[in-house]
Queue: 2 jobs
Job 1
Amino acid sequence: MTVTAPETSTSATEQPARSRVGLRHLFAATRGHRRNIAVALLFTLVGAGLGLLQPMLAMQTIDAVGAGGAVGWLLVALVTVFVAEAGADTIGRYWLERSGEGVVLGLRVRLISHLLRLPMRLYDHHRIGDLLSRTTADTTLLRDTLAYDLVEMLTGSFVVIGGTVAMLWLSPLLFGIVAVIVGGVGGVTLFVLARIRNATENAQDNLGLMAAELERALSAIRTIRATRAEDRETARIGHYAHTTYQDNVRAARLNSIAGPAVTLSAHGALIAVLVTGGIQVANGNLTLAELVAFLLYVSYIAVPSAGLFELAATIQRGLAAFQRVHDMTRLPTETDHTPTSLVSPASAPVLELRDVWFSYHPDRPVLRGVSFTVPRRGHVALVGPSGAGKSTILALIERFYEPDRGTILFNGYQPSIAECRQRIGLVEQTTPILHGTLRDNLTYAAPDATDEQIRDVLEKTNLTEFVSRLPAGLETPAGEHGGMLSGGQRQRLAIARALLARPELLLLDEPTSQLDAANEAAFAQTLDQVAGECALLVIAHRPATVRRAQTVIALEQGRISTDAGLVP
């Protein structure tokens, strides 16, 4: 595995310049669901069109009554239009909800896949709780925008335009009065929309921080209880909850200006039309039926008009949520530009580091020109004081990070990242155990493992007796983060999981740190067996582990040292 400094000049920690999202980005997110959205829009527009017919039918009915004509067919037509409008709205609503859920499902799956493929450096700089918030809370807020607000705005606009045309045809004078009143209030409402979006973005950001702090606290709940830190953590997390509250109140205050203003304008327009229209009817310039029809149109478009401004505010909140989702999807994923070589020299060691330099922060190198080899069989111990860079070396071998300078070879050539991780096993010092059964955890890296292979690794890691005592055996739940297991059991289970994948190189980070003396002695024998099947690179402090190694590599301050720094 030859690895050198990345060719790109952009650091993995650098985020792309923020691109302000707009409606075109939301439209792009509907790809694959546009046919369903079109069906929903069609039925919703049909319902809106049928609604626009009702004032005209009412006007004709009034004229027919005044003229003493037949009104039966007009009443039937009115009822038919009412029922048809309700049916069209129902169908449109269903397809809207279904389409919105489908779009958000696609976004969530894409976001989850993206999050699981980010470079490790990005996880070092992003809070896990905030990433969870973007996947859950932000996509939920976005769903309402996609499933309801956008199409409602389109149909509301259609109703307003259709009603406007009808009112112009009935009475240009009355329409002019309505336009002046509604237009003035509309200008004030538009002024606050951008501020609503900013307040919502801040609220969502703080909600993400609150989720991150809560995730941090729950992950260390035993420590918090043991140190009586409940009140301090409540205050810390509550700070972000309070800040979120303040931002949401600010958005609500701005929204409260728009809503009543639009309602007031609608009522004002209705009163103005009644007064002016009554004068027009008295002067003979307008018939009573035309005034009733005009009033119906004012009432009919008043709700959509008010709704348009409220929907605009809601869409701003949805765009604020989509901004956070969009920002995350634009982060670069882990890429592999490795030109895979199929040549594997038989004499090459399984692993070779040549003059490897690495730093987590510029000008603060963790590794300084590290060079060593690991043979294809045998046990190599990597020792040194804490902070010397031992775990960093394992992370570089697994290609979680790329070296700033130098070369890393696997079997004398350069495999892809996927091939590298398929052939190299890693047991971390923290021994993460996933939620699920013991079998789920054991076979995580080798889901097709046979029962015989499972029994073999259980025997090697001294877990056979423990599993046999459990009523459900391997189907026993491990608990959240392995909470149902002891520290030693978690560590042995993680080691068994790595062995089951049959790696060519097995990396162990402090594998005996949580084992008692009996299990440590048994595991030492396991290491001897494994060393005969594959290469072992073990970070160790305990002398018992180091003594069984054929080679000991001492690391100090990022350099190979002659002083092993062993614990006596």
Job 2
Amino acid sequence: MITYALIGAALVVTTVIIHAMGTVVLVRRLSRHTATLAAGPRWRWTLRILIGTVLWLLFLHLVEIIVWAFAFLVLELANDLQSLEEAIYFSFVTYTTLGYGDITLSGPWRIMSGIEAINGVLLAGWSTAALFALVQKILQAYQTKAKEPT
């Protein structure tokens, strides 16, 4: 069981690195818009930034789900996962904690499901926090702009 937990921990570290790097890219891209934010954002700019941020965060989660799926295939869980498509589906359902139960891992590999689920919850929380921080900054900019005399 220790071996499986260590493999799971390595996958968690891998996905955290992916998310951290993706967050750095996001912050750098958003920092280019500081002047626009300070000048008072416009609704089209706000919409574009929010949609772009959400799509970027979803892309990061998709990459992380695929990392788990490939790991399941490399670990040769052939009895449980027959194809890449099935591995990605299982990983998606597990990462998002939907847990349909139509595909399950057997034996000692079951611990990997729990590790992936908690990993998905933590990274989803991270993304939520990043999006919340962005919305907060945008709201502050709108409030500052509204207080300025015309």
